[in-house]
Design goal:
It is a single chain. This protein has about 240 residues and is an alpha/beta fold. Strands 5-6-7-3-8-9 form a 6-stranded mixed β-sheet, sandwiched between helices. It has a 3-stranded antiparallel β-sheet with strand order 2-1-4, with helices on one face. The longest helix is centred in the C-terminal third of the chain and has 18 residues. The structure holds adenosine-5'-triphosphate (ATP). The site of adenosine-5'-triphosphate has 12 residues, from strand 2 and helix 1. Adenosine-5'-triphosphate binds next to strand 2 and helix 1. It holds the Pfam family ABC_tran. InterPro entries: AAA+_ATPase, ABC_transporter-like_ATP-bd, ABC_transporter-like_CS, ABC_transpr_LolD-like, P-loop_NTPase. It comes from Streptomyces mauvecolor.
């Protein structure tokens, strides 16, 4: 088990939007790392910088100061190795669930038949095999979110970053989505980071971090990550 391998390292990474008096510091210098096998919740109110921090980790945003590196991933910034699940599932309406899940693979140049097979496997991981031939309009919010998660899993990511994946769902469905993410991360051997407003969602992850006005608050480790070595003291945050 590569429990100590660092997948993402943020060193004093900050992101400011705009300039001058109207500039918004979305993330003040954040220092943290995500390791293989981690199960981390990042909680915080709306506007506290959770999405921006996730985007920095996913290389969707560049830090305005400090740096983000991916020591355990072969490509920098990593392509495909980091999967991002967004709050709204944003499936393509004209494509079936399996076609949606296969789309990133097809766009990456994987042959259609192989992409469909991998997509079908990913749908099975999220318990959505029976939804494969449905169009997005025929799916409930929770079902659509499971398909969106399958779309990410089909790429075989080493790290899954889920940005408020339960934000638009009722509590029971939201908890099911967390079950699905945890099971799929275990099956894939991927690390998992989930941002949330909901403390009951945050408690489902092994480790809880928090954002407050753009600052990452030190972690409280609820329990040691399953299958990994005990954490070293002084880990940040
Ligand atoms: N592209 C952008 N341009 C300008 N300001 C932005 C941009 N993205 C985020 N911000 C600002 O940065 C701050 C942090 O936003 P962010 O979306 O990271 O917070 P959040 O905690 O994820 O919020 P939510 O839970 O509502 O999604 C907010 O004040 C937001 O308005």
């Amino acid at each position: 088990m590569t429990g100590q391998e660092v997948l993402v390292r943020c060193e004093d990474a900050a992101r400011t939007f705009g300039r001058g008096p109207t500039a918004v510091v979305a993330v003040h210098g954040a220092t943290c790392q995500i390791r293989a096998g981690d199960r981390i919740a990042i909680a915080g109110p709306s506007g506290s910088g959770k999405s921006t921090l996730l985007h920095l980790m996913a290389a969707l945003e560049k830090p305005t100061s400090g740096q983000v590196t991916w020591p355990g991933l072969s490509q920098r910034p990593p392509a495909g190795a980091i999967g991002v699940v967004f709050q709204g599932p944003s499936l393509i309406p004209a494509l079936t669930a399996v076609e949606n899940a296969a789309l990133p693979l097809v766009l990456a140049g994987v042959a259609d038949s192989a992409a469909q097979l991998r997509a079908a496997h990913a749908l099975a991981l999220v318990d959505a095999t029976d939804l494969a031939n449905r169009l997005p309009e025929e799916l409930s919010g929770g079902q659509a979110q499971r398909v969106a998660i399958a779309r990410v899993l089909a790429l075989g990511p080493r790290l899954v970053l889920a940005d408020e994946p339960t934000g638009q769902l009722d509590r029971t469905t939201g908890q099911h989505i967390i079950d699905v993410l945890l099971t799929a991360a275990d099956e894939l051997g991927a690390a998992l980071v989930v941002t949330t407003h909901d403390p009951t969602v945050a408690q489902r992850l092994t480790e809880q971090w928090a954002m407050h006005e753009g600052r990452l608050v030190p972690a409280s480790t609820a329990r040691p990550p399953a299958g990994t070595e005990p954490r070293q003291k002084g880990r940040t945050p």
